[in-house]
Amino acid sequence: MADRKIFAGPKVRRIRLGLELTQAAMAEGLEISPSYLNLIERNQRPLTVQLLLRLASTYKIDLEALQSDDGALVGELRNVFRDPLLAGELPGDQELVEMADAAPNTAGGILKLYRAYREQAARLSDLAELLAREGHETGMAATRLPADEVRDRFEHRPNFFARIEDAAEAFVAELSTGDDLVTSLQEWLKTRHGIVVRSLPVHVMPDLKRRYDRHSLRLFLSERLSAHDRLREIAMEVSLLALGEAVAAELEDLSFSSGEVKRIARFELARYAAHALMMPYSAFLSAAQRARYDIDVLRARFDVSFEQAANRLATLARPCASGLPFFLFEIDNAGNRLRRAGAQGYPHAKFGGLCPKLGVHAAFAQPGQILVDRVEMPDGSGYLTVCRTLEGPQAGFNERVRRTAILIGCDFEAARDTVYGEAANRPGANVLAGTACRLCERRGCLSRAEPPVTRPLGLDEMATGLSAFDFR
Questions:
Q1: With contact defined as beta carbons under 8 Å apart, do 199 and 233 qualify?
Q2: Pairing, β 218-222 against β 210-213
Q3: Coil, strand, or helix at residue 276?
Q4: I want to staple 184 with a disulfide (CB 3.0 to 4.6 A). Which of 177, 198, 279, 365 is the partner?
Q5: Model pTM?
Q6: Domain ranges of the chain
Q7: What family name appears in the similarity comment (predicted)?
Q8: pLDDT confidence of residue 177
Q9: Where does residue 26 rank: exposed (0-12), middle (13-18), buried (19+ CB within 10 A)?
Q10: Sheet of 210-213, strand order
């Protein structure tokens, strides 16, 4: 302790105020000047060993109370400021330490307010979904961030853009693809726009998967990307150049609120256009129908990934030439929803997708395996679901693999037209699910994570149900 300087000014000030002493009175008791105590309380001077002992003997203070023990509080504050709503206001660690040290009650109040905000946001979202399920639209769950506005708009409309589809088919018809689409697209970029595609090693581009250098006209792609993901990045660049008018027209029809929202949406439309180039609509629909929507067959036929083929299945909504009305969503292993879409819009009210019993959660325990289920909802409707994990960019030796899972589904009435229909009828494939725990009234559910908002809790000391949340 003799060699360690202790700066505990805010704690000394809290001790003084707790004892209802003025600076002059405490300074007299510690046999120091009021000005020196003022410097200590402002962390301009450290507490000496003699002063610590005098504090302990004069005011019966536990010396441990003057040691810094705010690590947990700082960690909780850091998590609060990582929320997307506050990400732009993230203070440095030192500022968080100072807040926790100088004003712990204020910091605790911030944590309580944030927890209340998250709880109310969840309840409003649940209530909005409940009203939507009953046929009442509401704006209670309005979007807060540009990315949320884009996600909400895309999820609530058919995942089909006619102008982009027509332009992509016309472009592919004129493009001499042969058997290698990657080579053809790279040649088109170089011939028409002088753009050269290059792969860069991880140490040169450690944090990016792609970068376009306008000055040297080079498109750099990370070597972390798989061959299929590199193809999509190249196709996105081609789409923005060759299909730019179609992308702009679809973007204009979406009527977004700000320039930032439009930029995010433009990226999503370019991704859609890339899939349209890689898997032209008519050819893909014909192949899908012949293969009975077998995703593995389609991924081999078009030399794409499972995720890309599944995404394309959810876009087959051309009038007079549509496929089965698939919908899909993707989550990470923490359950965060990354995206949702559907050929007829994502079925929020009927399917939801928040039930922990869905195969998309179980898929993480069986990486690379396809899980097929018949999901039965509380209203009696049924869905065919096909779930599988997806691998992200190649990780290094000391990095965790980024693994997500995708669920693609359709009404069970259409299951007989797919290769997965028979597997969904096997014993044990039936899953009794709900839209979300807060909206589900199934009793005795072992997977229930939250009580339903539609029922009062059944707090019976004499009997306890199987669920963690009994209700009446």
A1: no
A2: antiparallel
A3: helix
A4: 177
A5: 0.71
A6: 9-67, 145-278
A7: Belongs to the short-chain fatty acyl-CoA assimilation regulator (ScfR) family.
A8: 60
A9: buried
A10: 196-200, 218-222, 210-213
Are 290 and 251 within 8 A, CB to CB? no
- Cα–Cα distance, 450 to 313 (Å, whole number): 33
Quick check: helix, strand or coil at residue 337?
strand
Tell me, what DSSP letter sits at residue 65? G
State mean pLDDT over 268-286: 96
Contact (CB, 8 A) for 393 and 225: yes
9-67 against 145-278: fold identical? no
Give the Cα separation of 340 and 348 in Å (integer): 9
Task: Give the C-alpha separation, 335 to 320, whole Å.
Answer: 37
Class of domain 145-278: mainly alpha
pLDDT tens digit sequence for 363-379? 999 999 999 999 999 88
pLDDT tens, residue by residue, 53-94 = 887 778 777 666 555 555 566 677 777 776 766 655 666 666
pLDDT tens digits, 307-352: 999 999 999 999 999 999 999 999 999 888 899 999 999 998 889 8
CB–CB of 127/453 below 8 Å? yes
Single-letter code of the amino acid located at 99: M
